[in-house]
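User: quick one, fold this
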Amino acid sequence: MLHVVHHPAYVSPAPADSQFRFDKYGLVMEALRLGAAAFTVHEPDPMPREWIEAVHDPAYVSEVLTLNLPREKERRIGFPISERVARRSTLSPGGTWLAAKLAMEHGYAANAAGGSHHALHESGAGYCIFNDLAIVANRLVAEGLAERILVLDLDVHQGDGTARLLEGRSEIFTLSMHAEKNFPARKARSSLDIALADGVMDDEYMAALMDALPMVLDRFGPDIILYQAGVDVHADDRLGRLALSDAGLETRDRAVMSQAAQRGIPLASTMGGGYGADRMAVARRHAASMTTLADEAARAGLSVHR
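Assistant:
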């Protein structure tokens, strides 16, 4: 059974003068409903402001929540902040938090949003407002729910914001595997970065992933994995520079879950990037990622023992 976190407010009208469209979050749920896999929907609460401010500059948080974000920060994010977008910006990390709690109970759960890995301490960036991955990792440790956390970022873009926000945290390991020449131009330093050349296809991609992931899991020994499962590594993605096929995405997600299941590590996934003119095709890739992860968790008999 797939446990998926979704809130109707994840879907907002398209911001003016922006290429970003929030409708894919509704389309993903439609793709799940059209599929054959059984799933249960859980509705998140907003992330409490104090936990957002534990990671982000309180002045920046106030700018977002009072709709007073300076124009230059809006440009860096890529769209203006409306009341609905501000509400969504607290619900999305709340969704990743709920997915993490559900994963600890069931082995795997998905937030049908989140993965906002470019958001920085004093500003958002690259369509990201608040960094749900960093917020949730910090809260899990602070509340004593996990001692060690792996943030596994397989989006085509480096998780630069996550790396910067969690830099120096020995209890949190950030692993980013991304296209070397893609956004952001100035890379951060994750605990481990794997930079791939343009055009990398399925076999080379999987070789790089499997050269690193089992080693990190064995040496670091995380209590939970927060998985940024971006599908913009797909060959048809508008903003990607890699060339994975549908089969390659499935192989990636099965491998990630298999490695977690072998070690009894719960895993919570977030959607991350996926872009293209055919937004339903992108939504189907996100939905397929979630159902593949759930299917592999069931097949591998993931039993959480931590």
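User: anything notable?
Assistant: The first strand starts at residue 2 and ends at 5.
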